[in-house]
Write a structure and sequence with these properties.
UDP-N-acetylmuramoyl-L-alanine:D-glutamate ligase; four-stranded mixed beta sheet; 13 strands; cytoplasm; potassium; transferase; metal-binding; PfkB_dom
C-alpha cells in the first residue's frame, strides 16, 4: 500500500483520558499496611487515550473525543495529544477534575492492578458523540470502550453503524450489557477475563475462548477477538478461527496498556485496509513491544518498530 493510502486511514476513538500514577513494588500492601516501593512514575493514560496514541504512532489519522477538567492533568492530556498529532475533541468541564489512575506494577513479573477514577470523562453522554458525527462519518474505523458511560459508547456505535464505519468495541472494564449492543459491533476485543464475564464461559485456553466467542457471535457480533496475554489472540467469526501467537520481544516490564496497544494497532491496520488477521498480527506485534517498556501510552511503539518486528518474524508489514 502507498504512503498516501496509509495516511488516509482515519480512526475516531471515544473514551477517557486519565493521568497514570504508577507505583512499582514487590507486592501489593495489605489493608492497613504500608510498604516501600521501588519506583514511581506519572504519565498519560486512560484506555481511550492510550488507544489513540497507539493508533497515531501506528500511522493512522486519529480523532479522540473525551472530557477533561480545567487542571494540571488536563494540561498534560492536551500536550500529549498535540505531541502525537491527535486531533482532540475534548470538552473542558469546570469544577470536575481530570481522571486519574492508580497503577500497581509487580516488580517480579510486570503484572498490574489498577484503580481508575474517570473524573470529567465520567460525565460524557450521547451529546458528545452527536457533536463529532461528522468526524465519525469521515472515518474508516470507530473505537470505544466502557470506561466512559455506556450511553455514550452505545451512541458512538450507533452513529458509526449508520454511516457504514467499521466498529471496534473494547468491552473494558467488563460490565453487564444488554444484548442489543452486540449487533452494533463489527469487532469486539475482550481479554479472557472480560470475555468470561460477558458470556459466563470460564476461559483457560484457546478452545474455551472459541466457546465464549460463539456465545458472542450468537448475540450478533460480527467478529470476536479474545486477547489471551502470553498465549496471543484468537480471531473467531462464522468464517474462520485463527490463533495468533504472542510476540516475544524481551523481558516483560509492564503489562498495563498492552490491551490498549493491541486495540489501537488493530484499528489503525484496519483503517489502512488490512484484512482482519493481518490487522490482528499487527496489533499483537505492537502489544508485544509495549510490554517491554514502562508506562501505558509512553510504551507504544512506532509504525517502523512494529514493521521491523513483523519483518523479522516473516509477517507482512505496512507500507510507510
Amino acid at each position: 500500500m502507498s504512503t498516501q493510502s496509509q495516511q488516509s486511514g482515519r480512526v475516531v476513538i471515544l473514551g477517557i483520558y486519565v493521568t497514570d500514577l504508577t507505583f512499582r513494588a514487590e507486592r501489593m500492601p495489605l489493608i492497613g499496611e504500608t510498604i516501600a516501593g521501588s519506583a514511581f512514575a506519572m504519565g498519560p493514560g486512560g484506555k481511550g487515550s492510550n488507544q489513540a496514541v497507539a493508533a497515531a504512532r501506528a500511522g493512522a489519522q486519529v480523532v479522540f473525543c473525551t472530557r477533561i477538567g480545567n487542571d494540571a492533568f488536563g494540561a498534560i492530556a492536551r500536550s500529549t495529544w498535540t505531541a502525537e498529532g491527535i486531533t482532540a475533541r475534548a470538552t473542558t468541564v469546570e469544577g470536575v477534575s481530570t481522571g486519574a489512575a492508580h497503577i500497581f506494577v509487580d516488580d517480579t513479573n510486570g503484572k498490574n492492578a489498577i484503580i481508575v477514577a474517570s473524573g470529567a470523562a465520567g460525565t460524557m453522554n450521547a451529546a458528545d458523540v452527536d457533536a463529532i458525527e461528522a468526524d465519525i462519518a469521515a472515518a474508516q474505523v470507530f473505537v470505544t470502550q466502557l470506561e466512559q458511560p455506556l450511553a455514550a459508547a452505545r451512541r458512538g456505535l450507533e452513529v458509526a453503524r449508520r454511516h457504514g464505519v467499521i466498529t471496534v468495541f473494547n468491552p473494558a472494564p467488563a460490565l453487564p450489557l444488554d444484548d442489543d449492543i452486540f449487533p452494533l459491533c463489527d469487532y469486539i476485543t475482550p481479554n479472557e477475563t472480560e470475555a468470561a464475564a460477558l458470556t459466563g464461559v470460564p476461559i483457560q485456553n484457546a478452545d474455551d475462548a472459541r466457546r465464549a466467542a460463539d456465545v458472542l457471535l450468537a448475540k450478533g457480533v460480527g467478529t470476536v477477538i479474545v486477547t489471551l496475554g502470553e498465549a496471543g489472540a484468537l480471531l473467531h467469526s462464522a468464517r474462520q478461527s485463527v490463533l495468533v501467537p504472542a510476540f516475544q520481544c524481551g523481558r516483560v516490564v509492564e503489562t498495563a496498556g498492552a490491551g490498549d496497544g493491541f486495540t489501537g494497532g488493530f484499528a489503525a491496520a484496519l483503517a489502512r485496509g488490512a484484512d482482519p488477521v493481518e490487522a490482528m498480527r499487527f496489533g499483537c506485534a505492537l502489544a508485544g513491544i509495549s510490554v517491554t517498556r514502562p508506562g501505558t501510552a509512553p510504551s507504544m511503539p512506532t509504525l517502523s518498530e512494529v514493521n521491523q518486528l513483523l519483518s523479522q518474524a516473516g509477517q507482512p508489514v505496512s507500507a510507510h
